[in-house]
Amino acid sequence: MAGTSTDEIAGERRQLINVAYRLLGSLAEAEDAVQEAYTRWYALPPSRREEIVSPGAWLTTVTGRICLDVLGSARARRERYVGAWLPEPLPDRAEWDHGDGTDPADQMVLDESVAMAFLVVLESMTPAERVAFVLHDVFRYPFTEIAGVLGRTPAACKQLAASARRRVGVAHAPVTAAGQADTVRHVKQAWETKNIAALVDLLDPAAVMIADGGGMVGTVLRPIEGGARIAQYMVAIADKAPGLELLERSVNGVPGLVAQYAGVVTTVASFDVADGRVTRIWAVRNPEKLGPWAQDG
Predict the structure, then answer these.
(1) What is the DSSP string of 31-87?
(2) Can you give the pTM of this predicted structure?
(3) Segment 98-112, tens digit of pLDDT
(4) Dist CA 157 CA 68 (whole Å)
(5) Which of 169, 191, 200, 224 is the most exposed place for a label (fewest CB within 10 A)?
């Protein structure tokens, strides 16, 4: 069958990486899940592979099941995680593409479904809700196919997606990239000049900052709440790290900031902006999550 050629099977990788990253919030885990799905495909007897009408659907189902298992075990792992756990941030492909096409992030489609704000909401869902919601609402897979991933009826999968949709809730109107970039640029300028008053003006009074150091680097272990407290913390960081360089970068397809110290990326910050003010800051500092950024710039 032409559909089972090596090239056809390899061509599914991009889609599978995109699905798995949105399901797991980790590029490394997504790559592992997709690799395991391919391993299982090639472990099938040739006669069995020939019987599969849609290899892409088969690989998606297997990848989804692997991700479901990973999500189930991730809950226990994250209970032992030091501090807050945040999804792994992705740079813009143009900023780090090595040109050989081997890096999984080179295959990522950066749209609103990978924005940090969206991924954090996905983290609040049960594994089954997340799988049903991502496959249906993001990738438009029919519930009959999702049923094969979750081992439930299509009707039950539809209910799971509906429950997940309620968790997403009614978000504020999305900010244009240009509008968010302007706000982030002003935050950068105020941070660099250690202007607390300007930072307070740029932060929503009820803003929340969450940092992920994974116990590997120093950072706050609990969310910082309130614009004034966040501004004071940001200035304290600048005081402790003279020579810290802030760069405007795309983070998961949305304008954000990257902090470099002595040429090494130490923090990748994502922002949620509403009405020109920052409502959420997610700062990833765990070096194990900054691998793709090591080649940044």
Answers:
(1) HHHHHHHHHHHHHS-HHHHHH-S-HHHHHHHHHHHHHHHHHHHHHHHHHSSSS---P
(2) 0.89
(3) 444 556 666 788 888
(4) 14
(5) 169
